Amino acid sequence: MKVIILLSLFFSLNAFSNDTIRNFDLNVTLSGLDKSWVDRIYLIEVKNIGKALTTSAFMQYDSLLMSTNGEFSLSKNTVLKSNTLYRLNVIQKKQYPNGAFLNLKASEQNFVFFVPTNDAQFTIQGDINSFSKSAKFMEADAVNRELSKFRDLRKTEMIALDGLLSKIQNYGLIQDSLTVYKAIGFQIMEKARKRYKNFSDSSEFFLPSILATNFYSVKKDSVMFDKLVKRYQNSNPKHIYTTQFSDMFNLQYLTLPLGGIAPEITLPDTNNTLISLSSFRGHYVLVDFWASWCKPCRAENVNVVKPLYEKYRDDGLVVLSVSRDESESLWKAAVIDDELPWIQMSDLNPDSEVFVDYFIKKLPTTYLIDKQGKIIAKDLRGKDLIDFLSKLYANE
């Protein structure tokens, strides 16, 4: 079954301010609709460029209701902003009522980005079951053609991941093959990350370029992020996305820059003895912020940090775990239950200055400190942390 979605916005000039869109037409034709899908398409305004992939229902701007003859119509009272990204979402009934819900599983991805522009008319065609992968932009203006180019880059990643998922389903999840599958998946995503980074760097269009930054990491690509901050501040200094992008980069990277001296930490350990970070000059120090109630933290400690500590402690690696717990009993019980042999620190104050000094917004968070007390890596987890320490000690 095909569904025709007609977004036709024709307003009198009196209804517009300078930053609203005039005469924008978007026709969307989708095949594959069945009873498992909600008979709506959701319109999501990207209000914060760093959260373009957020699933929050508060982002929902409007929805298109299907009439009995299979057509969608956007409310005539809806006013779209110029120079702004929007996202169209299709939702299965099991995911309803959150119209902003994102399915990020390979070809099942359920969203498409577009930019409304004055006096523009174009068509999107696709299959509702693979909206992101199948969507084709027809008769689009230049900026939306650029978004379509970026979608084609992402399509390459989706196809590769589809092939990997098919192998997993056919051959099962025996331990040896699972390790291989993880390695292949990592390679696919690394290649995709490089393509997205190159797209951001080369695109002459501001909105497609800055949207692509959602698909790679400031942690791994800080040089590119720094370059893009300067570029966007020069080309679009007053755009809210530029401000958000710059603030996000400063918060995540420049607030405690690589190469800077790590702020001092002095906290009591489990025996109530004060321990200071600065006392470990001459050692590499992994500072790990965690809490007993944080399941990802505890999994990371047991499965990643503990093996690394056992491997490198004779080479001088020091691990300082700083807990955000309030309960002494829960904190110490977690240390005992998880059999964590390195230094554990906490003043049992979740608002302690150390969390302010290190800009802790989430758990777990890690900082790697060199022998001179300088920050050499931030927020490394899993394979990234394993690889970084391997290279570090290989060069010792």
Key attributes of the depicted protein:
396 residues, alpha+beta, elongated
User: Which series of helices and strands comes N to C?
Assistant: EEEEEEEEHEHHHHHEEEHEHEHEEH
Total number of helices: 10
Number of strands: 16
Largest sheet: number of strands, sense, barrel closure: 9 strands, mixed
Describe this protein's structure.
The structure is a single chain. The protein has 396 residues and is α+β, with helices and mostly antiparallel strands. Helices cover 36% and strands 21% of the residues. It contains 10 helices and 16 strands. The protein has helices spanning 131-134, 142-171, 175-202, 206-212, 222-235, 240-254, 295-312, 328-337, 353-357, 382-394; strands at 3-9, 24-31, 37-45, 60-66, 71-73, 86-92, 111-114, 121-127, 136-138, 266-268, 274-276, 285-290, 318-323, 343-345, 365-369, 375-378. The strands form 3 sheets. A 9-stranded mixed sheet has the order 7-6-3-4-5-1-2-8-9. Strand 4 and strand 5 (71-73) form a beta hairpin. Helix 5 runs antiparallel to helix 6 and helix 7 (295-312) packs parallel to helix 10 (382-394). It is elongated. The termini are far apart.
